[in-house]
Design a protein that fits this description.
mainly alpha; hpI Integrase, Chain A; three-stranded antiparallel sheet; 15 helices; DNA polymerase, domain 1; globular
């Protein structure tokens, strides 16, 4: 089974071109599933691995048992991701004739509570951006990072992978390689353009000034996702914002502000690089909640209690 998993992960990286983060998550879920089969479900002798023949006999009950074993220590979202990994794995084995079908296909996904995306309010966004007001190269770089994240709605992995050749400052457009290797063009505004120009000028003071990556550290190496998160944490603290703000929060803020400003969901879907409109539609819940709050605060009949006799008569 480990050889099959290795081949499957190579397929995800080479043919489907999924992100390293997704591949790591699938690898962990499948390794946990293999260990569960060996130790708990099949009760194999110590050191014995699940064979290729045994994989062919895995059924839906084994998959359900694995999810049930995860339940006490894993949230429904984690169990749902594990089920998605197993489904995709067995779909791949079925196509290659290793298994007769997909035993996970009939297993229902765990119900997950619908959570509204965390986003910043207008004043909070301005406070965060203004907190990055340093005039040294690091400060100008950080301001460019925050401005571009908010202006474009990029994922942090997309941001750190940008090269100068991907950005047209004159037209204020960025060519982005998103999930699944899908390319899209994303516009950004004048504040982000100015921040990028200022950072490019200051960049000359650091090593390897002619390198292609836009966002680098003091040694001239490309920033990582974790580095951007540390940058954001620093300015969240400086702006005295609530905890729980991360790079994806700026992506959610971008989408929410676009929706509240009148952009249609299809346009937002294209800008965010969502494969499915259903993913983008969750932002409508944010907007509806805002409208509901405004109605309750403003409409006189929203605050009037209706007598019980009127309710029964209606």
């Amino acid at each position: 089974m480990r050889d099959l998993i290795a081949g499957f992960l190579a397929h995800l990286a080479g043919e489907r071109r999924l992100s390293p983060h997704t591949i790591r998550a699938y690898a962990g879920d499948l390794e946990r599933f293999a260990r569960f089969l060996e130790r708990d479900y099949l009760d194999l002798p110590e050191g014995e691995r699940v064979s290729r023949e045994t994989v062919a006999n895995v059924d839906a009950l084994a998959v359900r048992s694995f999810l049930a074993a995860l339940a006490p220590k894993a949230e429904s979202t984690s169990r749902g991701r594990a089920l998605a990994a197993i489904r995709t794995f067995f779909r791949w084995t079925a196509r290659r004739g290793v298994t007769a079908g997909n035993p996970a296909a009939a297993v229902r996904s765990p119900k997950t509570p619908r959570k509204l995306p965390r986003h910043l309010r207008a004043g909070e966004t301005e406070d965060l951006l203004e907190a990055a007001s340093g005039c040294d190269p690091a400060g100008l770089r950080d301001r460019a990072i925050l401005e571009l994240l908010y202006a474009s709605g990029l994922r942090v992995a997309e941001l750190v992978s940008l090269d100068w050749s991907d950005v047209d400052l004159r037209e204020r457009m960025a060519r982005v390689l998103g999930k699944g290797g899908k390319e899209r063009m994303v516009p950004f505004g004048r504040p982000a353009e100015r921040a990028l120009r200022s950072w490019r000028e200051a960049r000359a003071a650091w090593p390897h000034a002619d390198s292609e990556p836009i966002f680098v550290n003091r040694r001239g190496s490309r920033l990582t996702d974790r580095s951007v998160r540390r940058v954001l944490d620093r300015y969240v603290a400086a702006a005295a914002l609530a905890h729980g703000v991360h790079p994806h929060t700026l992506r959610h803020t971008f989408a929410t502000d676009m929706l509240e400003g009148g952009a249609d969901l299809r346009a937002i879907q294209e800008l965010l690089g969502h494969a499915s409109l259903a993913t983008t539609q969750r932002y409508t819940h944010v907007d509806l909640e805002r409208l509901r709050t405004a109605y309750r605060a403003s409409h006189p009949r929203a605050r009037v209690a209706v007598p019980a006799r009127e309710i029964s008569r209606d």
